[in-house]
Design brief:
The chain has helices at residues 2-32, 35-67, 183-187, 247-277, 286-367, 370-385, 392-429, 433-437, 465-473; strands spanning 79-88, 93-94, 101-122, 128-147, 150-154, 157-161, 167-169, 171-179, 197-209, 213-222, 229-232, 241-243. The protein is an alpha+beta fold. Mean pLDDT is 76; it is low at 1-16, 26-35 and 467-474.
Length: 474
């Protein structure tokens, strides 16, 4: 038993020594792996992916702006909308620096400094050296941003906008640099100073002034307290934008970002591998650049194809939604207007009957004599004093206004549908979108045509039988 135990221990020792030798061999092989080039390679690939994503995202936003038609505030429905108008508010903000009325502002106070710094560098011979030099820069010492709910107004009405969470493009409100002798230096800036301060501060403020014309794209929803739409942040919305720039300017800006990020990413993908691997691998140095550019272009193309497909699918769904909005408004007109007419007719009949009864009593009072006249007069006076307020006139006015609003909503829904159908038809025929249209089953759409009786205008007839009889007697 003891002999067996000793043999087991010897075998275990040999096993451990063999395992240790294998571990040492593995560690030696790991040390031979060029970790630094690999890390640089992974970082380069991550950079290319980021640049490709930024490029494709900019194009997606541009297509979204181009595909969604602008609608009036009175014709805003639930979903993604695009509106233009002026920024209005009953309780606007007062900007911090310019002290102007606005619905959004952001300011920054920067202070200049000058410091003597010591830095380490490597000279041309590879030696590490140190040097001291004067360095100048700016530090942000104060900043802030504020926004408030506001209304966007156009020629058809008002639309509430909640700017929280929006991508806001603002205009310059204030820009000034001053020294410590200026009252602005400490009135709008902190009392303390940064290390090495030169005594110069820069005050910059941007915002959206009251009554400024703006462009808004975002998701519309119903307000919580009233039955009216509002534009607010929505996690599912592809874009929430409030800008002092026009639609054309924003579209051009995203187009510039698209091509800029693409070119920067492609040049980086070609130049970086060629520079890092030049002389390190056998063969021409430009082959690595071609491979890097090819990898970037293939990934960018794949992401671009997915973006175009999703964009066309979203456009197709918006066309369907626009048609449903037309049907909703037509159905509302078909159901609502006859009911309002019946209500007005009921009040009209009530007041016609009341007037006829009063006229009959007056006639009886005029022809009555003696005690009959004396008996009727108090009743007539009491009836006159207790006469209810006539409301048919105001109801006619309300009905007229509702008819105008209803027809306006129907016209706006029809116009919005025709606008988005026009964009749909252009996308179907435009290259390269036409090659992807069949994948999402897109087709040319016909413009709005009213066919069924529910899409016909509702006839309003306020002539009652009592009114017609009275006219015949007259």
């Amino acid at each position: 038993m003891e002999l067996v135990s000793c043999m087991d221990l010897l075998e275990s020792g040999f096993l451990f020594r063999g395992l240790a030798a294998q571990i040492d061999s593995s560690l030696g092989s790991l040390e031979q792996i060029p970790w630094q080039p690999l890390a640089i390679g992974f970082a380069a690939v991550a950079l290319w992916i980021l640049l490709a994503e930024l490029s494709v995202r900019a194009r997606r936003k541009q297509r979204l702006i181009d595909d969604v038609p602008t609608c009036k505030t009175a014709g805003v429905f639930i979903g993604l909308v695009e509106v233009k108008g002026t920024a209005e508010s009953d309780d606007p903000l007062v900007s911090y620096l310019a002290e102007s009325l606005c619905i959004h502002y952001s300011y920054t106070v920067s202070e200049q400094w000058r410091r003597l710094v010591t830095e380490t560098y490597t000279d041309s011979k590879g030696n590490t050296r140190t040097r001291t030099r004067m360095k100048t820069g700016w530090d942000t010492v104060d900043q802030g941003t504020r926004s408030c709910p506001f209304y966007l107004e156009d020629d058809t009405g008002l639309l509430r906008v909640l700017p929280a969470g929006a991508d806001i493009d603002s205009a310059a409100l204030f820009s000034r640099s001053c020294g410590q002798g200026d009252a602005l230096y400490y009135d709008k800036g902190p009392q303390s100073s940064v290390f090495g301060s030169t005594g110069t501060r820069r005050f910059v403020e941007n915002g959206i002034p009251l009554h400024r014309r703006i462009y808004v794209m975002g998701s519309s929803r119903l307000q919580k307290d009233v039955v009216a739409p509002e534009i607010a942040s929505d996690p599912q919305s592809p874009l929430f934008l409030i800008s002092v720039k026009s639609e054309e300017q924003k579209s051009s800006s995203y187009s510039f970002q698209f091509w800029g990020w693409f070119l920067f990413g492609f040049v980086t993908a070609v130049a970086l591998p060629a520079w890092l691997l030049a002389g390190a691998v056998p063969g021409p140095w430009w082959i690595s650049g071609v491979l890097g550019g090819g990898v970037f272009f293939c990934y960018w193309t794949a992401r671009w194809v997915v973006m175009v497909y999703n964009s066309l699918m979203a456009l197709k769904n918006r066309v369907e939604q626009a048609w449903n909005n037309v049907d909703v408004q037509l159905k509302r007109r078909h159901d609502l207007i006859p009911q309002l007419v019946e209500v007005v007719k009921g009040y009209q009949q009530h007041e016609v009957g009341l007037q006829q009864h009063l006229a009959l009593l007056r006639n009886e009072a005029q022809v009555a004599v003696g005690e009959v006249a004396t008996a009727c007069t108090p009743s007539l006076i009491a009836l006159k004093e207790a006469h209810p307020e006539l409301r048919a006139n105001s109801l006619f006015i309300d009905l007229h206004e509702e008819l105008i609003r209803t027809e306006e909503k129907v016209a706006l829904a029809r116009g919005y549908y025709n606008d988005i159908v026009e964009e749909n038809n252009e996308r179907v025929e435009r290259i390269p979108d036409r090659f992807f249209g069949s994948l999402v089953k897109m087709r040319r759409r016909k413009y709005y045509e009213a066919r069924s009786f529910e899409r016909a205008a509702v006839q309003v007839d306020l002539v009652t039988e009592e009114t017609s009889s009275a006219e015949k007697r007259a």
